[in-house]
């Protein structure tokens, strides 16, 4: 191995460690909660039990990735929940029509890409705050979901629901493919610009990086991930619900922040956001098996989130003092 190659590899790992600085404690917490969950529910260690758990985690993992992608560029989205709902109703009204499941998947993906790209275009070209644009978008997209399907209904072909939400870990396989696609995307010029857009936009602009295209692309991909989460939820329930995605907006932000993704952009990693979403999914199941009432579950969930975010910062201050 040449000295230059060794230096490049060393720099790569230093960058990776820096991006995961806020999530190191989280990884340990996730492992502890997984062990506790396996102790409380030994069925988790079976293929069926693991498949069901991965299905409950999958939609939150997708929305956490969608939110983290925007936060890495210095943005944020308050429209993820509404976009999830839109994806669910479009899947439910198209998959039993002329073009079948393939046509439904294409419609869901195209809608997510178009909705996200339009929001990104408004944010980038009009120089408006992402939080304001996506807040307004959430009302528009939510209204569109109600126009498509005013009440829960529609249908998903049973064989497709069984494929995605049956007793096999298809959801985990899909998540692995999406993570692989993310890694490949990071190697493209647009992917390389994502961190620069959030960390040092002025420097990236002066170096000729495609900042605007990277940001609009990030919004488009975020929209596609959100509508795919809605498609999966529709497959789980066998129908579409125009308001089923509401909880995903705040949960996706919580998962990204838990994973060490900063609000100012350029800080954190996708693996951290996935770990944050995994912790949220495991916490819900652990508290259920502990028999905690719903109110206590919300309080405990909030305290654990605050603790998981605050402890690494407090430890850093203690070390630097």
Helix and strand pattern? HHHHHHHHHHHHHH
Q: Helix- and strand-based class?
A: mainly alpha
**Shape summary:** globular
- Percent strand equals under 5%
Description:
There is one protein chain. By secondary structure, the protein is mainly α. The chain is built from 14 helices and no strands. The chain has helices at residues 3-19, 24-40, 47-72, 80-94, 100-125, 130-148, 158-165, 170-186, 189-199, 201-206, 211-237, 248-258, 270-289, 294-320. Helix 2 packs antiparallel against helix 14 (294-320), helix 12 (248-258) crosses helix 13 and helix 13 (270-289) packs across helix 14. The complex is composed of two ATP-binding proteins (LsrA), two transmembrane proteins (LsrC and LsrD) and a solute-binding protein (LsrB). Its main location: membrane. It is found in: Cell membrane.
């Amino acid at each position: 191995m040449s000295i230059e190659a060794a230096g490049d590899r060393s720099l790569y790992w230093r960058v990776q460690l820096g991006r995961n600085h806020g999530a190191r404690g989280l990884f340990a917490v996730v492992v502890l909660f997984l062990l506790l969950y396996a102790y409380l529910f030994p069925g988790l260690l079976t293929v069926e039990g693991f498949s069901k758990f991965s299905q409950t985690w999958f939609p939150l993992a997708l929305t956490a990735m969608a939110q983290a992608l925007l936060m890495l560029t210095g943005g944020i989205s308050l429209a993820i929940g509404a976009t999830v709902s839109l994806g669910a109703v479009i899947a439910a009204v198209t998959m039993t029509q002329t073009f079948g499941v393939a046509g439904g998947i294409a419609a869901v993906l195209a809608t997510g890409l178009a909705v996200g790209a339009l929001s990104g275009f408004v944010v980038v070209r009009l120089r408006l705050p992402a939080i304001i644009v996506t807040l307004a978008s959430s009302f528009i997209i939510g209204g569109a979901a109600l126009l498509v399907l005013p009440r829960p209904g529609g249908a998903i072909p049973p064989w497709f629901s069984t494929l995605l939400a049956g007793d096999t870990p298809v959801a985990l396989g899909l998540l692995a493919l999406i993570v692989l696609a993310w890694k490949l995307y990071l190697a493209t010029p647009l992917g390389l610009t994502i961190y620069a857009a959030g960390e040092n936009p002025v420097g990236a602009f002066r170096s000729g990086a495609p900042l605007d295209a990277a940001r609009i692309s990030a919004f488009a991909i975020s929209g596609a991930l959100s509508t795919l989460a809605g498609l999966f939820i529709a497959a789980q329930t066998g129908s579409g619900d125009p308001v089923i995605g509401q909880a995903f907006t705040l949960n996706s932000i919580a998962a990204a922040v838990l994973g060490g993704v900063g609000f100012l952009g350029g800080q954190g990693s996708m693996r951290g956001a996935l770990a944050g979403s995994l912790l949220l999914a495991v916490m819900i199941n652990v508290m259920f098996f502990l028999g905690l009432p719903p109110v206590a579950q919300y309080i405990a969930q909030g305290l654990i989130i605050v603790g998981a975010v605050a402890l690494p910062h407090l430890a850093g201050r203690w070390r630097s003092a």
